[in-house]
Sequence to fold (443 residues):
Amino acid sequence: MSDLQIGGLLIGALVALVLLGVHIAIALITVAFGGIWLIRQDPEMAMRLFYMASYNGVADYIFATIPLFVLMGLLVSVGGVGKDTFEVAEALLRRVRGGLGVATVAANTVFAAVTGVSIASAAVFTRVAVPEMVRHGYRTTFATGTVAGSSVLGMMIPPSLLMIIYGVLAEQSIGKLFIAGVIPGFLLALAFVAMIVFMATVLPGKVFDLDRLAELQRRQVEQPRLGAAAMAGKLVPIVLLVLLVLGGLYTGFFTPTEAGGIGAFGALLVAAARRRLGAANLWKVLHETGSVSVGILVLLVAASFYSRMLSVAGVPMAIAELVRDAGLGPYGFLLLYVAIVLFLGMILDSSSILLIMTPIAAPIAQQLGFDLIHFGVITVLAVEIGLLTPPFGISIFTVKSTLNDPRVSVESIFAGAMPFVGAMLLVLLLVALVPALSLALVR
Fold:
């Protein structure tokens, strides 16, 4: 059996282990160790490569971005910034058709610019936006679908943990990836807004509980309005954080690691100023930061080891030759790659897909002439769609568990999120065909 055949079997074994419930890090290390042993008939070489992957996997300065941005996102969440952002967006957009849905997307867009974690966005806005939307006559299916759908903005608008993971695996600049995600991220938000306004205007029965809405209009309940001073007070902290982090990155004044540190410190000041950071909350934030960060770093060590095994087996080079010989061309390969990622999104979580696919696909994409920054944006967009597709859909399950309402089924939340999947596919196609959308700010 050739090295390439062994490599192909090992990739299949990895997917099988993950589907059987083996932790992705353990599956990656097991397959990589076994693969190098089989290919080179040398267990000592496998152990040496594992040692090198373990050391190099966490020694780089850039890895500090992970705990720093996780800490910033959790502090912002504890500080109540998400709730304040939604209240301001609601006040500004109450006259727009489907205004509360648009407000949820707008608030999530701003919130994403300081968190980078879709799950945090889904949890915060499930508590804040869903009850408010239902109270104003929106269908629960639409309200939960809107929260789940707009939560994926956290993985595209910088800072983004998926961008960091891709950058490490593909050996690309984290700062450039962050900047490359700005235009596609806001384009995605605009697509969501257009889709909501269209549905509210043309298909109101899909958005509103029409009987409940008619009753509310008969009662003519006037909602209290936020004054300009109150709006400014609620918006100033998050606007300053966004300007601090993204402004520093875009101007090159901060490295991504420094931006994470400055952002985390700013979020700490906001939470402390609002008296939301008692001993219990502080311990919870630090504990969760450690848990999330260590989990991601272990995954990156495992993925680095797996990538070395693929190189030893010659898998990326062989697949690139097959693609060229098949006459698929760059965009034929890209179409096949996106289809595989979308399929994996139905059965695996986002990090697992990146860890499995990036070491294989990035070298091939580079050989076919793709800019790996542009390819990274396409990859993250495709992976994001998996957050909303059954049966895995982790954002859907986050909304379900946070809402904790037996009357709201997982199936109804999936149904509410499907229009957002359609909008994401459209933006994915646009970004793939027009590289300037992701590269304009980088150059």
Summary: The CA atoms of residues 343 and 384 lie 12 Å apart. The mean pLDDT is 80. The first helix runs from residue 3 to 19. The chain has one domain: 3-439.
